[in-house]
Amino acid sequence: MRAIYKEMPSSEAYTLQNAGGVLLLCTHGVPGQTPFYDLAPIAWSCPFDYEPVSRMLAVCDTSHQTYRDVLATGEAVLALASADMQTLCEATGSVSGALVDKYAKFNIPAFRADSMDILIPEGVPGWMECRLVQTLVRGISGILFLDVIKAFAIEEFWKHRLHFVRQGVWYHSAC
Q: In the chain, is it the N or the C terminus that has fewer CB atoms within a 10 Å radius of its CB?
């Protein structure tokens, strides 16, 4: 029996591929900037190379403080959001890091990255410490091309990932 397909609006076609794991883009600002540490959930990211190092791309709104932080400092952490971090992702994505210290406002326990002064929320299944290589801007979206300097993860990290499809639609593995 053939499946029944229904046409969907082309403006929603991205949801067919948008089931990737949510990342928390963790950054630090320039000295004297308040708040100094920031994070923002992003759902559009992927690897684009693995030799000589893993390389990632992450899509951000160019008006976001985390995007400006990466441009100013040349570094960021891509932390894998765990399945129990949906509320954290919704909360940190609802306010601007230019206006509020998200770590303080949402009482986010965190630890420092291994090779850079960036805070990472406790409970992530893994993270990648990255250096900015290049940016590409189209409209309000900025694509960050990042080289992974160091990476850390728990065993079977993929079983703990949180995924975002579109507004109001999240899922995680039942494994």
A: N
